[in-house]
Amino acid sequence: MIILDTMGHMVSTESEEKTHEFAKKLGLKRGWYHEAESLKRYHPHYDLTTRRMKKRAVRLGAKPVKASELLKIAWWANPISHYYQLDDEKE
């Protein structure tokens, strides 16, 4: 699943590759990806900086989440992050 927080950070809950695949659908360049190279960029992501781009991402399937939730469920958050379900997805 692709998630998008309130600050415009976009990432997959599954893998880095899924993040890049979705970014490609949005027309984002791979070079715009924020790698986790230092403590300043401790969570890899793409920045969606315009309202138009954020709306397009949601139309294509990105799930809006709070920033705190993104930090818990992104693919790099922890080894079991891909098993975590958002509250509204639980049965």
Q: What's the SSE blueprint?
A:
Elements: E1 2-5, E2 9-12, H1 16-26, E3 46-47, H2 51-59, E4 63-65, H3 67-73
Parallel strand pairs: 1-4
Antiparallel strand pairs: 1-2, 2-3
- Enumerate the strands of the largest sheet in spatial order, edge to edge or round the barrel: 3-2-1-4
Ranges where pLDDT stays below 50 over 5 or more residues in a row are 79-91
Overall domain count: 1
For the report, how would you describe the main beta sheet?
Answer: 4 strands, mixed
How much of the sequence is in beta strands? 5-15%
Average pLDDT confidence is: 83
Net shape: globular
Determine the structural class based on helices, strands and strand pairing.
Answer: alpha+beta
Cα gyration radius (Å): 12 Å
Taken in chain order, the helices and strands follow as EEHEHEH
Number of strands: 4
Helix count, DSSP H or I runs of 4 or more residues: 3
Helix content: 25-40%
Distance between the termini: 17 Å
In a nutshell, what does this entry contain?
This protein is of the alpha+beta class. It has three helices and four strands.
Question: What does this molecule look like?
Answer:
The protein is α+β, with helices and mostly antiparallel strands and 91 residues long. The protein has one domain (2-89). The protein is 30% helix and 14% strand. It has helices at 16-26, 51-59, 67-73, and strands at residues 2-5, 9-12, 46-47, 63-65. It has a four-stranded mixed sheet with strand order 3-2-1-4. It is globular, with a radius of gyration of 12 Å. It starts with a strand and ends in an 18-residue tail after the last helix. The relative contact order is 0.25. The model is unreliable at 79-91 (pLDDT under 50).
